[in-house]
Design brief:
Layout (H helix, E strand, L loop, with lengths): L5 E5 L4 H14 L2 E8 L7 H10 L4 E6 L1 H14 L15 H16 L1 E5 L8 H12 L4 E3 L1 H4 L4 H10 L13 E5 L2 E5 L28 E8 L2 E5 L2 E2 L2 H14 L4 E7 L5 E7 L1 H17 L2 H19 L6 H13 L5 E8 L2 E8 L7 H4 L11 H9 L1 H12 L4 H12 L1
Parallel strand pairs: 1-2, 1-4, 2-3, 4-5
Antiparallel strand pairs: 6-7, 7-12, 8-9, 8-13, 9-10, 11-12, 13-14
Helix pairs in contact: 1-7, 4-5, 8-9, 10-11
């Protein structure tokens, strides 16, 4: 093996990346190592994809079942951060790219490659996520995109595949661009690019129509330090928890999102998402945090959750900023343990019960019945001290004729 005479390619098994294997070899003179990950996207078996890469000319083909790793080390971080970009999107694609990149860099080190190639276009977020992640892990590696950098268009790719007898079957092209994994599914392009057009039934795969739901589904989820560990009393791994909630919440039509999204590259894009398990689990996790986080800690965490989602969306998974936020988020999860009862029906997941041994909810303080332990007489002094600064400022305003009461009198006089 010649040092730095190889390119590692993020290989999906489709037309774009299959054509990229011989095309990169021709254009660069370097051998191609194909790397494919299963992050729960379904479709073809990894061994089928591996063989296709070899048949297209790859000198090595690495396949990795990364579903458990993705669920445990990436989806669970997003769950602890209640990650919802722009309040609704559970970062389906944004959290898978750093994991894929990690394995690409590992392959580059193993096989002596100095370049990593991916199949992104120049208009999307993922090109930034791959390349920033690559430089964050190993700044010495170069990154290229055959589709973006070499000007490969679909008709050119099809002709090239036929000319080179590549083992790619061409079927009728879907009008949508779809990315999916165990955390959810992203759909864009086609007629959805007109934001006035409503989605049709064929767009959805992970969720059933919420307008025609089955009977309501009551579920209990047990968390330990922010991670789901049991569903209806049965022990589950992170991957099993996501898969079960995908199935059950998806049957109720939960987790559909239709969003005009602010992309990292500076354009607005119409995106559809399905994330039934993610939305249901985040709903349950947030409610448990309501019980277990101290008031000021909880306020700060809500701000950090929002910022975490923005940074991860913006390709900053491996950044110092996100590492620091992760440390804070992990600290907050120390007492986020307990059980949530939730009813799922007709597109909604509604929490109906909470129990936690580490909850800060104190019945004897909260109750309005006799025998409560809250000292209501203490409120007099609390209000006096809490409102003192406002009282002093209001007195000053009145001395200068700028008080709220004076403003109201002037308005009344003008009306008269």
């Amino acid at each position: 093996m010649t040092e730095n005479n190889r390119i590692v390619l993020a290989y999906s098994g489709g037309l774009d990346t299959s054509v990229s294997i011989p095309y990169l070899k021709e254009r660069t003179g370097k051998d191609v190592v194909a790397v494919s990950l299963d992050v729960g996207q379904g479709g073809e078996r990894l061994q089928t994809i591996r063989q296709r890469a070899l048949d297209c000319g790859a000198v090595e083909s690495v396949v990795v079942d990364a579903r458990d790793e993705f669920a445990k080390d990436y989806c669970m971080l997003a769950l602890k951060a209640n990650a919802m970009y722009e309040g609704v999107y559970p970062l389906v694609s944004a959290i898978s790219r750093p994991l894929i990149t990690k394995h690409l860099v590992q392959a580059a080190h193993q096989y002596g490659a100095d370049t990593i190639a991916h199949g992104c276009t120049g208009k999307g977020n993922d090109q930034v996520r791959f390349e920033v992640s690559i430089m964050s892990i190993d700044p010495s590696l170069k990154a290229i995109s055959p589709i973006r950098d070499l000007g490969l268009m679909r008709d050119v790719e099809i002709a090239y595949a036929k000319e080179h007898h590549l083992p790619i079957e061409q079927t009728e092209e879907s009008p949508y661009s779809i990315d999916q994994n165990v955390w959810g599914r992203a759909i864009e392009t086609g007629y959805l690019e007109d934001p006035w057009n409503g989605p049709t039934k064929d767009v959805y795969s992970y969720t059933d129509d919420p307008a025609f739901p089955p009977v309501e589904d009551e579920v209990t989820i047990d968390f330990e330090q922010g991670i789901p560990v049991r569903i209806d009393g049965r022990a589950v791994t992170p991957l099993e928890a996501i898969e079960e909630m995908n199935r059950r919440a998806g049957a109720q039509g939960i987790g559909r999102v239709d969003l005009i999204e602010d992309r990292l590259v500076g354009i607005k894009s119409r995106e559809l998402y399905e994330a039934p398990g993610a939305v249901a689990l985040i709903t349950a996790h947030q409610e448990l945090e309501n019980c277990c986080l101290e008031r000021e800690q909880h306020r700060i965490k809500r701000d950090i959750d929002k910022r975490w989602g923005e940074l991860v969306y913006d390709a900053q998974w491996y950044s110092p900023a996100v590492r620091s936020l992760n440390a804070f988020i992990e600290e907050t999860q120390r007492y986020v343990s307990g059980r949530i009862r939730m009813v799922m029906h007709g597109g909604r997941a509604v929490v109906t019960g909470r129990h936690s041994d580490s909850s800060l909810y104190d019945y004897s303080l909260a109750t309005y019945e006799s025998g409560d332990s809250f000292d209501q007489n203490a409120s007099n002094g609390f209000i006096a001290i809490y409102g003192l600064a406002d009282k002093v400022a209001a007195a000053r305003d009145m001395r200068f004729g700028n008080g709220i009461a004076q403003d109201g009198q002037e308005q009344d006089g003008q009306e008269q």
